[in-house]
Write the C-alpha cells for this entry.
Amino acid sequence: MPFRPLLALVLAFCLTFVTAPSRVSAAFVKGPERGNANFAGVVNTGQAGTCKTLPAGSQGSINVDGKFKGLCLQPTDFAVKLSTKRGQKADFVPAKIISPRFNSNIDEVSGDLSGGKITAKGGLDFALMTVLGPNSEEFPLVFSVKDMVASGDKSISPGAEFKGTTFTPSYRTGDFLDPKSRAKDTGVDYAQGLVALGGDDEELAKENIKQDLSGNGEITLTVNSVDAASNEFSGTFIAIQPSDNDLGSKEPVDVKLSGNFYGRKA
C-alpha cells in the first residue's frame, strides 16, 4: 500500500527532530573538527580580544635572531592630540574607544628577528576603530603594525626597548563611495552639481577630489617579562598614529594608543 512508505517517511522526519540537539553545544564548537586548540580555549570565554601575559617578574633573555610569531598588541588607553583652548599648543588629551570596544587588538603577527630589530612581515596586523575626543568629536583610525621595523637591544630581556616606525593604510579604500557617490577608483570623483565652480577653490577641491592617502606611525615596545624556556615575552607598548583623513578632505590628528603586548620566538 502507498500509505506505508508515507508513514515511514513521516516517522523518520519526526525522529530527526526529536533526536536533534536543541542548540549547538560548546563541546561541539570545541571539538577536534575545529583543528584549533587556541580557539577551543577561548570560545565562549569573552577573552578573544585579550592578549596573553606572562607572570610579573619573569626573568630571562632571548636572542634577537631568527623569527617571531604570535605577536599580539592590545590597546587599553587612548589619547588624541588637540588644542582644547584657543591659542593653546596642541597636546594629547584622553579619549575613549567607542567602536569596536572589545576586539581592537592586533594578533598573530609574525616576522623576523635580526640585527637587534623586530620586523613585522604579516598576520592580523591592523584593526579599524573609532575613538571619541573630549569635545565629542569622533576620530576613526587604523591601528596598524604593518611594515613595522623596531630597533633596540641585541636581546629580548626585561627592560629592553624597541623603537621604530609602522605603515598606516587609509581608513577607507579608493572604492569607498561618499554620500555624493564620489570615490577614487570608480571614475566618479567630482560632485556634478558643482561643475560650474571649476574646482578652483582649494577647500572645495579637497572635498571633491578623493585620494587614497596612507600615513606612518611610531611605536615603542618595552619588554617587562621573558620566559626563556618557552621563548615567550610580554610587556607594554606606546604607538602614535594618524587618524583618518576622509580620503584627503580633512587633516588627520595624531592618536596615541598604549597597552599590552605579547609574542614568542618561532
DSSP finds four helices and 13 strands in the chain. Residues 3-19 form the longest helix (17 residues).
